[in-house]
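Data availability (excerpt). The following record was deposited with the supplementary files.
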Amino acid sequence: MPLPADLSSVLNSAWDSAKNIPGFLLEDEARFLGMAAASLPSTEGAIVEIGSFKGKSTVMLAIIARHYGLGPTIAPVTAIDPHNFNNTELHSHRTTEDATSFHEFIANLQAAGVADIVDVRRAFSHDVAQQWNTPIRFLWIDGDHTYAGAKQDFDDFMPHVLPGAIVALHDALHEFAGPIRVFVEEMLRSNSFGPAGFVGSIAWAQYRPQDGAQFQQQRATLEKLAGPLIPFFDTDKPLSGLKKIGYKIKRSRVPRTLPTLAEWSSQISR
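Predicted structure:
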């Protein structure tokens, strides 16, 4: 599938707007989000982000959506987050018991000039899902990183994902059970998905319900590298000692380089 001719320069512009916003998204990961959002051949479908924090990924996605006229005309990006620091990694950012990232999130959207095209849902994703009825072109899951939380987000929103869309989970190569288990068990092992991979700590796969079976070998090869990470999360305790060293050794074997635009186009077009 040919990508927009100006995508490289648009990604540069989007990153310039997003890079100084506090958050855990690395540059290559942010650029990947932009590539994924722009990937469907049509402009149909919403971009759904579960987990926004202070808006780093939201701004990246919204700038791409605005430039290419993606998704619903009024609000092509839906950003879902209760902004209550419920994630363990985010908890260190809490300054008071009732601290919230919401006000900084809104200010960052406004500063980037995209507040008018983001449908902000200050709510838990499962509650939003109960009323959701819009097709999805890109599903970005970066919310509750427990297995139960990530699996629920996946199950809640997958019925609305369009064929050809990208589904991605953040922190699949960090010390959380949810993203890596959902990626391996629900995506790599399913013939409803086609090409798949990692960029930084993002795990992604293209939803291909019609022809995903032809990518079974490619997914199986990736599962041989990613699957061995799952047993490290047999408890909710943080990894330490030899177990943490073992995890890092196995994680180092997983390829996670940002593809070039030509490589990306080839991967999702076969």
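Summary of structural features: Strands lie at 46-50, 77-80, 118-121, 136-141, 161-169, 193-199, 202-207.
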